[in-house]
Amino acid sequence: MAKTIIVACGSGVATSTAVTAKVKDLLDSNGYAGEYRIEQCAIAEAVVKSKSADMVIATTVKPNGIDCTYISGIPFLTGMGKANAEKQILAEMAK
Length: 95
Fold this sequence. Notes:
Layout: E1 3-9, H1 14-29, E2 36-42, H2 43-50, E3 55-58, E4 69-72, H3 75-78, H4 82-94
Parallel strand pairs: 1-2, 1-3, 3-4
């Protein structure tokens, strides 16, 4: 069954679009093409959406109430800590 990934930022448009592209590249290059569904949203929507998701990747501080794995998307923007964030995403996909 495909994993549901929520990619969130402040507005659900700008930085989440950049992170979504990088996460797709990561997953596809590691053999997960077709095994996930990414949904972009504003962080305000992420709490509700997390109830039916496998992971939330966000470029904001983790809000209270996230019901699934939370991974910071900031490393995909800054490059700092990106390898660790990628490891977390791949570990979650392997579950």
